[in-house]
Structures are given as structure tokens and as C-alpha cells.
Amino acid sequence: MIGVTEARPVRAVIADDFPFLRRVMRDVLQSESGVEVIGEAESFEEVLHKVSYWQPHLLILDIGLVAGPRVDGLAQIRELSPATRIVLAGDENSPEYAETTRDWGCFKYLYKADFLGGVRELIDELQVLTESGARADRPA
Asked: Which domains does the chain have, with CATH numbers?
């Protein structure tokens, strides 16, 4: 087709303190066309390092790594990599909880038990934003 170019891959970093969950998330994300998992982190300090170094399009972050007093850590992440879309992943399955994470400035909330179901929609949204050059600090 004229005018169609190959889409740039969505570069993702996965952060969770459980190795098994990181592996599952990596497998699910890498099964999606147009996604490249470029790093993993198991602690908040490691998240800061990886995000600063890689400047990913997407950070899938276990809410347990930033819950409580660390919610301010989301601002640190945005400061290090303003274009990174932060997606919190957690065990709560409620619209209110998802809305709270958006109030914290996150792009999206994914319920871990339905991770597979939410990934395709997430990747579609990110590919559109990545291709358009939209920044993370602008409304989606």
C-alpha cells in the first residue's frame, strides 16, 4: 500500500517482584506483534534505573512496588522518562481502583488475573500513540 510504513515496536519494561509473573507478562507481551520487551525490574530502585536508561514507551508496573508512600515514585518515573506510559498492574478488580490509578497519573490499570485480556487493547492504544508521537504527559 502506498504511504504505509512498518510501525515502530512498542518498547516495554516489566516491573514485578515475582519472577514468575514477570515471565508470564513477558511471554504475553512478546506474543503480540509490535511489542519488544527491553527490560525487567524487580524493585522500585531497579525501575528507576531501567526507565532512565531505556526510555521505554511502556512501563508495566506492579502496584505493590509503588503503593503506599511510594505513590510519589510515579512522579519520579515521569520525571526520568516523560514519554513513558505507566500501566499499573494489581490484584484489585474494580472500576474505582482503576480510576484511582488514573488519578495518580497512570495511563491504565490492568487486573493481573485478566492480564491477557487487557493487553491487546493496551498495545493497540500505545501503537497509535507511539506512531503519532504523543507524549505521556498529554491526555490520551
From this structure: 10-132 (3.40.50.2300)
Q: Tell me the per-residue pLDDT of 9-47, one tens digit each, with 9 for 90 and over.
A: 889 999 999 999 999 899 988 887 788 999 999 999 999
Strand ranges across the sheet with 10-15: 35-41, 10-15, 58-62, 85-90, 108-111
Torsion of CA 115, 121, 123, 129, to 10 degrees: -140
Instruction: Please list, in sequence order, all residues whose beta carbon lies within 8 angstroms of the beta carbon of residue 81, skipping any fewer than 6 positions away.
Output: 51, 52, 55, 56, 59, 136
Query: What are 14's strand-pairing partners?
Result: 40, 60
Q: Is 58 left (phi over 0), alpha (psi -120 to 50) or beta?
A: beta
Q: What is the pLDDT of residues 81-106, one digit of tens each?
A: 999 999 999 988 888 888 988 888 89
Distance CA 67, CA 130 (A): 28
Reading the block at residue 51, the C-alpha cell is 526507565
Q: What percent of the chain has pLDDT over 70?
A: 85
